[in-house]
Amino acid sequence: MHPLSTSVDTSGETYQRNRDAHLAAIADLNAQLELARAGGGASYAERHHRRGRLLVRERLELLLDRDSPFLELSPLAAWGTQFTVGGSILTGVGVVSGVECVIIGHDPTVRGGSMNPYTLRKTLRALEIARVNRLPVINLVESGGADLPTQADIFVTAGKIFHDLTELSALGIPTIALVFGNSTAGGAYVPGMCDYAVLVDGHAKVFLGGPPLVKMATGEDADDEELGGAAMHSRVSGLSDYFAVDEPDCIRIGRQIIADLNWRKLGPGPARPADEPLYDPEELLGIASADFRVPYDPREVIARVVDGSRFGEYKQQYGTSLVTGWASIHGFAVGILANARGVLFSEEAKKASEFILLANQSSTPLVFLQNTTGYMVGKSYEQGGIIKDGAKMINAVTNSTVPHLTVNIGASFGAGNYGMSGRAYDPRFMFAWASAKLAVMGAQQLAGVLSIVARQAAERSGQPFDTEADDQRRRAIEEQIERESHSFFVTARLYDDGVIDPRDTRTVLGLALSATHSQVVEGRRGFGVFRM
After folding, report:
1. Which of 8, 147, 415, 525 is deepest in the core (most CB within 10 A)?
2. Which of 163, 72, 132 is nearest to 427 (CA)?
3. CA–centroid distance for 190 within its chain
4. pTM score, two decimals?
5. How do residues 314-350 score in pLDDT, each as one tens digit?
């Protein structure tokens, strides 16, 4: 592998226009992240402190190893909905006592930490990441249970939280509950189903039914402590494994539990030199096109992400709309697939399939840098076999067992999203740049297709075609698709694991790669039938 060269003109008009557009998108992202970090707002945070409680991010800070990174997941969940940005829960991957763990923390400043539909999705995704990457789970518990007005949307599926916690335990993946406050009704089963439970004296309240419900159901009078206090569960019921005198003590015990696990990664550690790229990641803002319809060379992105800007390109002169090759990121060997000109032709599909097979032969993780408008259409391409060639690529992606990490760095449209390991193909982690788009196709293309279909329908029926009404429909559809393809709209629904600043791409991929190597990293040797 040799270092990539660069031809970026940082003084050019196109570079500056791209940079301005990306900075604007990043400013919007940072504003929304601040809302997520604020939780229920200053007044609720102050009230929480007055009660002698720490905020969820303060608990997280005490839990994590000093100066260690935290890869937050789905921070903009529920954006654009009736619910608070962030989904009233904090999830991510962080290092505790030297061990990478998935951390799930309720935010009690948002409706008492109650669970709404987005809280549920975010929790289940975090548990899935823990399972496939073999990461211990630490729950920071303080929740009033389900958000009752939305129970119809959460009750049935919420049972999967219990299912996944018990499945993790059966797989030998430790689960820990640090209970700081309420853990009621269905939420009481979280400490009940975790391998370890630590309860804080005077604050933890773990019961299936609180005093009002018990009174109504049985006529019995009981207070919170008798029903579910830390002292009762530590001395009487046995639900509590450890009795914590306060929140810092609870976190100390949690860190000690992790330290005592003697946890070891199953995947190989970083084996390549993890030197910084030769080129400044700041330049990514001017390199990436602000308009997804304007192509740019993804090698310029790769050169600012991989170790030492070294890249061994595979089939450089064949299928040139897709760049493939070998590199390393923070010392971890990777194969990279990056769209160069958006469209995937038959040559690109076959090239990708072969490259994915090679990565599986050598058990090398794959990084997909999406910027695709999909597979090529047209008479000559259909006759040339684009469907079966695209099917080869999707077959390879589906059955590949090495870790996939996907980043949408421009656009991800149509079946190109599938072929480039989109959400439906279970990448271990998936992120998007703030300026990225995701939809079945671009807004103008989609509106244009519907307009053509409407015109043809009018012609077949012999009806006059209303051009003015069609123009209004096109504008409305374009506005709808622009809104629904926006990176915030997409991440709000957990179609990725978070929107990131392009300059953080190398760091995010490094953290994700490290997490995936807690699990065995092994490629598939046998694939399904390829249509030749």
Report:
1. 147
2. 132
3. 23
4. 0.94
5. 999 999 999 999 999 999 999 999 999 889 999 999 9
